[in-house]
Amino acid sequence: MDPGRKAMIAGRRSPTRRDVTSPRHDPTNRITKSTKPSGSKINPKYLTQDEQSRQFVADEDKFVLKQSKKKADIRIREGRAKPIDYLAFNLRYIDTDRDIFDDDDADIEIDVPAPGDVVASLDAEQIAELESDIASYHVLETNATNREYWRALQTICKDRKAKLDPHGHERRVVSSVSDDIDKILAPKTHDQLEALEKQIKAKLQSNEDIDTDYWEQLLRSLRVWKARAKLNQVYETIKETRLNQLKERDPTKVKASGQPTSAPKVTFGSQPVPPASEEKVSPAPASSSRHVGTTAPPGTERFSQVDNVDFSQATKALYDREVARGVDENEEIFTSEEAVTTSKPQWADKYRPRKPRYFNRVQMGYDWNKYNQTHYDHDNPPPKVVQGYKFNIFYPELIDKTKAPTFKIIREHGRRRGESFAAAGEEDTCLIRFMAGPPYEDIAFRIVDREWDYSAKKDRGFKSSFDKVCSSGPLHFTSRGRAKSLPLH
């Protein structure tokens, strides 16, 4: 009987017959069908025209960037480098996209100056050229770390360009206050500067009655120091990477020297600039490390060490005392310094003229005259007005300490005491000029020209004192209304 028929009668499935033309089934030899290619592996010819254009531009930019770095390497090896070449060459140690086959074995022996030193050594014309070169690298770069590096350099160049242009922009915060700001920002890390930046922005956006010019200048300076901190981070990584490569190449040489050769001095302009590693920045006093908004504003940590030990210590104690006191609720840091026109002093050939350091405050408050009492109240107070000043000017290196500094009031345009040339709703101003003698130049501040209070009342009136190193004195104005305080209802 046919096997199939016998199986059917027995109730079993008929045995399947193998197709002699099909591949032989073997557990160790599987035959699988190829899958359809995924969209990411589609042939480029199937890309849209826009996608092809973008791909072409990206490839072109990548090629141009690679060639620019190669040219920089070649110029440095041949000793004819431009400023931008040093900045690009520094990146070789941290650039993850760099092709190692583009490097020469001798490149690691080349000492390259720190990025900040390169920028600091340029004049105005060279800075303009460098800004253009940096912008080109920044546009072509796709690596996030490299873009941050170029962006920080753009900020440093912008700051350097502003400092080289004496007529670039006017600002109330003069050089002496900029030094104060630099001293408080210099010791901070990149993360600390970012946190401080958020606090300053919040303060500027608040409705507090603050010196906007001062805080905006502080924010501008902070961004520059944040860029410097970023460059320092990058340069420290570069030095560490280079040291490791030197160890791998010649451990005995690195062990003998202890560290790779320090960055060389670089000269692109008329004056050589020492490397950043040789610069020392003294940390800010711990007594003034206070937060924005709740304590004394930055800029209260100014003190320059002097040669005379006794007087420098005395001045530092006085200054630290002022810093520790901070500013009261009704006070602000006063920095409205004015340029002083004067002839060259006779002692200039014997002593180096210098500007004195100072830490001044302006006192603000409400003037409750009859008009303000009528139109304002406790919940809706009038605008604050200047009620006085506190000057603290330091003369630690004064030659003749037996002669106290003096001051005088200067009213412009022939205006006399008691006269007013100001428009309605405004107040006249005048200059208060302080004079001390060699080696200090005169220093002047613009203040509101109102009648001074010479009374002997506590925390009021006018007082001037000099204790060999510091000239100080509070100055208050007389009240223009009978009501001395806010009336209670």
Automatic annotation (TrEMBL):
<dbReference type="GO" id="GO:0005681">
    <property type="term" value="C:spliceosomal complex"/>
</dbReference>
<feature type="compositionally biased region" description="Basic and acidic residues">
    <location>
        <begin position="16"/>
        <end position="28"/>
    </location>
</feature>
<dbReference type="GO" id="GO:0005737">
    <property type="term" value="C:cytoplasm"/>
</dbReference>
<feature type="domain" description="Splicing factor Cactin C-terminal">
    <location>
        <begin position="347"/>
        <end position="470"/>
    </location>
</feature>
<feature type="compositionally biased region" description="Polar residues">
    <location>
        <begin position="29"/>
        <end position="41"/>
    </location>
</feature>
<dbReference type="Pfam" id="PF10312">
    <property type="entry name" value="Cactin_mid"/>
</dbReference>
<dbReference type="GO" id="GO:0045292">
    <property type="term" value="P:mRNA cis splicing, via spliceosome"/>
</dbReference>
<comment type="similarity">
    <text>Belongs to the CACTIN family.</text>
</comment>
<feature type="region of interest" description="Disordered">
    <location>
        <begin position="1"/>
        <end position="47"/>
    </location>
</feature>
<protein>
    <recommendedName>
        <fullName>Splicing factor Cactin</fullName>
    </recommendedName>
</protein>
<dbReference type="InterPro" id="IPR018816">
    <property type="entry name" value="Cactin_central"/>
</dbReference>
<dbReference type="Pfam" id="PF09732">
    <property type="entry name" value="CactinC_cactus"/>
</dbReference>
<feature type="region of interest" description="Disordered">
    <location>
        <begin position="246"/>
        <end position="303"/>
    </location>
</feature>
<feature type="domain" description="Splicing factor cactin central">
    <location>
        <begin position="48"/>
        <end position="234"/>
    </location>
</feature>
<feature type="compositionally biased region" description="Polar residues">
    <location>
        <begin position="258"/>
        <end position="270"/>
    </location>
</feature>
<dbReference type="InterPro" id="IPR019134">
    <property type="entry name" value="Cactin_C"/>
</dbReference>
